[in-house]
């Protein structure tokens, strides 16, 4: 643990400083519509014995996933070419434009080996090893991130999509946002994001969060990682978060929506399976077993030599099983591949010594002339050799103490087309969220790990087949192409939305129309009606009332309006038919069928409402362009007609005063409106109540605002979420505006009528 923990006082911000190299705001836009930014390029620089220089495509899964769409969209990849102190001009490789970023030997020492891998890596992996905090490392991290941002800004066309990858470049999104607000920016964090209590130790914690919040979409491996990020944002900045949505104030007084969501990464499963079926690789797998003495069981561990992987824990468990006679070296061999990693970092040098000492001790105690207990290999292998090892192994041991995903687990499953093999998987690896049929373990529990290893070794063939079949289905259904497409589909919602109804939405409407019971739940403002300056002037676009009536007349169709408005206001502007179910005030008010409006505040809530009214009237009264809207369980502070500066100041003062007087208030932020409620409820709560009331088999929900994300969150498999307008969203489909919504409802009515006639 190094010194300099007071660095946050004097650390530079991410906007540059005197004498710094040119930033991204000083370059002209490029012409690429899709730009990927990562620490390493997808190509490796090679020099042959005769001095010939060449570039070879890297075999990584990320490259495999992005190559086709980058070629199709005229994409560029920005990154370091893997050679220090060398300048390379941009070039094209296999249909992808390559934009190299120069890093010096000092950059690698301070930015990469230092801040990235001796500060962030251990911190983000739950401080399994102690992080080091040095201000000069942070300075280098800022400088190098600025260099990557500059290269990306110079490559990206106006309105382009930029996808930034991993923990080495967490400041790039904000730098790009400030320099190029026209860009659609995504960030994916390939490693875990730690709980707040750990993340808060970082002296530059606010700068890192601010850097990430420059993105429109921030992707994480696990749901827990996305939750950790949102909690850190709330604690350190006080920004409103609802579900996966974070509301970030912008300079014009408005708010920008950032989505923080998990997108578990995967592999090219079909490519691994195809390789495993090649005769020469199957023969190599047979040869590996023979070279190991044909033991009954081969156990395999494949890892980078890193303290997060739990290599020492598995060696300890295996050694104890040999020591107590539960396993014998004649029957079971452990093959451990530990590829070199960060060998100039002192922590990794020490780890290598510890692992090799442990391997030597077990082998010295239990190996025989003909059988080696642990076959240890401190070097990497080509992919073909790894596939052969996977085929040869009866049991795969993944014992990570903390891991963002661990793709080795998925590679093993993809290779086992024979339906055999057992995966023993740490519950602290991201893959455990998906691969539930693995034998899950806590690697810190050595006795538990020993029991799980024995369960794997002795597992009956029928159970092995059942588990592997389920694991393979999961891996093949969610491969790396699905991952990248899902991320980019969510991200590019931030771009302009074309008019009309897209073909994939038409297909989805046709599919949902055949359900036995359908609930069509619709937001009003911005969905059925355009936004207007005076809320009471809002009216649905022409044709909406008629198409809603068509739906109501069809068997098995229920229609509901789900609004943030009070029901009195909603009824006034929407003029709904009596059969339309209504929820107002984000689900606090409900009117279902013949029932009256349900609410009923308790005395304590009435008292809070009085206090809320006094405070907001005092704050907003003197400011032109602001007004208070009464809600059944709260009030809404509207700033649509105020200047951006006045609106932001009024909202900030309201937040500050009410946070002190009424800390338990529910606060929601919409477009130029801040809503305070004495009762907590969301549109997601309202939608779940409507589903229960109607017994609907399938749900279509349409909405345009941040608050509608709560409803999209509770949609299930087979439901249809429709986002109106731009902005990152969880909805699977989107259209431009209310006119398109009317077209969507008309199509659904047509499909439903046709489906009914066929029954």
UniProtKB/TrEMBL annotation:
Enzyme Commission number(s) of this protein: 2.4.1.15
Region (Disordered): 1-29
UniProt KW Transferase keyword: yes
Biased composition (Polar residues): 1-13
InterPro entries cross-referenced by the UniProt entry: Glyco_trans_20 (IPR001830), HAD-like_sf (IPR036412), HAD-SF_hydro_IIB (IPR006379), HAD_sf (IPR023214), Trehalose_OtsA (IPR012766), Trehalose_PPase (IPR003337)
Annotated catalysed reactions: D-glucose 6-phosphate + UDP-alpha-D-glucose = alpha,alpha-trehalose 6-phosphate + UDP + H(+)
Enzyme class: transferase
Superkingdom assignment: Bacteria
Transport among keywords: no
Keyword vocabulary terms for this entry: Glycosyltransferase, Transferase
GO molecular function: alpha,alpha-trehalose-phosphate synthase (UDP-forming) activity; phosphatase activity
GO biological process: trehalose biosynthetic process
Pathway annotation: Glycan biosynthesis; trehalose biosynthesis
Segments forming a coiled coil: none
Family statement: In the C-terminal section; belongs to the trehalose phosphatase family.
Name recorded for this polypeptide: Alpha,alpha-trehalose-phosphate synthase
């Amino acid at each position: 643990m190094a010194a300099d923990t007071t660095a946050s006082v004097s650390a530079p911000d991410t906007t540059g400083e005197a004498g710094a190299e040119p930033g991204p705001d000083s370059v002209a836009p490029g012409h690429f519509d899709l730009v990927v930014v990562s620490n390493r390029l997808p190509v490796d620089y090679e020099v042959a014995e005769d001095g010939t220089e060449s570039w070879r495509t890297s075999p990584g899964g990320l490259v495999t996933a992005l190559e086709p769409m980058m070629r199709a969209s005229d994409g560029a990849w920005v990154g370091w070419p893997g050679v220090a102190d060398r300048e390379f001009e941009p070039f094209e490789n296999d249909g992808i434009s390559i934009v190299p970023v120069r890093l010096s030997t000092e950059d690698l020492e301070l930015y990469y080996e230092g801040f990235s891998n001796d500060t962030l890596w251990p911190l983000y992996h739950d401080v399994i090893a102690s992080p080091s905090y040095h201000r000069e490392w942070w300075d280098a991290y800022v400088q190098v991130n600025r260099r990557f941002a500059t290269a990306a800004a110079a490559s990206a066309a106006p309105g382009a999509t930029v996808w930034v990858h991993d923990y080495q470049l967490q400041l790039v999104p904000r730098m790009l946002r400030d320099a190029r607000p026209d860009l659609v920016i995504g960030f994916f964090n390939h490693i875990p994001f730690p709980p707040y209590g750990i993340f808060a130790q970082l002296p530059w914690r606010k700068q890192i969060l601010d850097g990430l919040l420059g993105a429109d979409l921030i992707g994480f491996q696990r749901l827990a990682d996305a939750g950790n990020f949102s909690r850190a944002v709330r604690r350190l900045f006080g920004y409103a978060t609802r579900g996966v949505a974070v509301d970030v104030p912008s300079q014009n007084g408005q708010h920008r929506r950032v989505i923080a969501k998990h997108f578990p990464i995967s592999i090219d499963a079909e490519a691994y399976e195809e390789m495993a079926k090649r005769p020469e690789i199957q023969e190599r797998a047979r040869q590996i077993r023979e070279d190991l003495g044909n033991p009954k069981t081969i156990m395999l561990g494949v890892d980078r030599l890193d303290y997060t992987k739990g290599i020492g824990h598995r060696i300890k468990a295996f050694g104890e099983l040999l020591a107590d006679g539960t396993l014998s070296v004649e029957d079971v061999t452990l093959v451990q591949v530990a590829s070199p990693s960060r060998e100039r970092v002192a922590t990794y040098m020490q780890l290598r010594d510890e692992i090799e000492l442990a391997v030597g001790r077990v082998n010295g105690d239990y190996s025989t002339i003909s059988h080696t207990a642990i076959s240890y290999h401190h070097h990497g292998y080509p992919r073909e050799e790894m596939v052969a090892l996977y085929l040869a192994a009866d049991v795969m041991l993944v014992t990570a103490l903390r891991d963002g995903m661990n793709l080795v687990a998925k590679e093993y499953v993809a290779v086992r087309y024979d339906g055999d093999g057992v995966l023993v998987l740490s519950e602290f690896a991201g893959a455990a969220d998906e691969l539930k049929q693995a034998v899950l373990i806590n690697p810190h529990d050595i006795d538990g790990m020993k029991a799980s290893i024995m369960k794997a070794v002795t597992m009956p063939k029928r159970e092995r087949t059942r588990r592997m079949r389920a694991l393979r289905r999961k891996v093949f259904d969610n491969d790396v192409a699905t991952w990248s497409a899902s991320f980019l589909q969510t991200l590019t919602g931030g771009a302009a939305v074309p008019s009309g109804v897209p073909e994939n939405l038409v297909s989805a409407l046709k599919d949902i129309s055949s359900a036995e019971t359908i609930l069509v739940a619709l937001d009003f403002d911005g969905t059925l009606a355009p936004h207007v300056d005076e809320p009471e002037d809002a009216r649905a676009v022409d044709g909406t009332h008629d198409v809603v009536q068509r739906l109501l007349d069809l068997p098995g169709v229920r229609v509901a309006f789900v609004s943030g408005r009070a029901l009195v206001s909603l009824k006034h502007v929407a003029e709904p038919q009596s059969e339309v179910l209504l929820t107002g005030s984000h689900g606090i008010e409900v009117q279902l069928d013949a029932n009256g409006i349900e609410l009923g505040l308790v005395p304590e809530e009435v008292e809070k409402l009085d206090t809320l009214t006094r405070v907001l009237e005092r704050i907003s009264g003197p400011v032109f362009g602001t007004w208070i809207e009464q809600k059944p369980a709260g009030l809404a502070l509207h700033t649509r007609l105020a200047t951006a500066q006045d609106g932001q100041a009024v909202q900030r003062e309201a937040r500050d005063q009410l946070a002190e007087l009424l800390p338990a208030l529910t606060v929601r932020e919409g477009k130029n409106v801040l809503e305070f409620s004495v009762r907590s409820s969301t549109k997601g709560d309202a939608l779940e109540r409507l589903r229960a009331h109607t017994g609907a088999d399938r749900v279509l929900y349409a909405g345009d605002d941040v608050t509608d994300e709560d409803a999209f969150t509770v949609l299930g498999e087979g439901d249809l979420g429709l986002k109106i307008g731009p902005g990152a969203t969880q909805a699977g489909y989107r259209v431009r505006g209310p006119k398109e919504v009317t077209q969507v409802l008309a199509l659904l009515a047509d499909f439903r009528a046709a489906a009914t006639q066929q029954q």
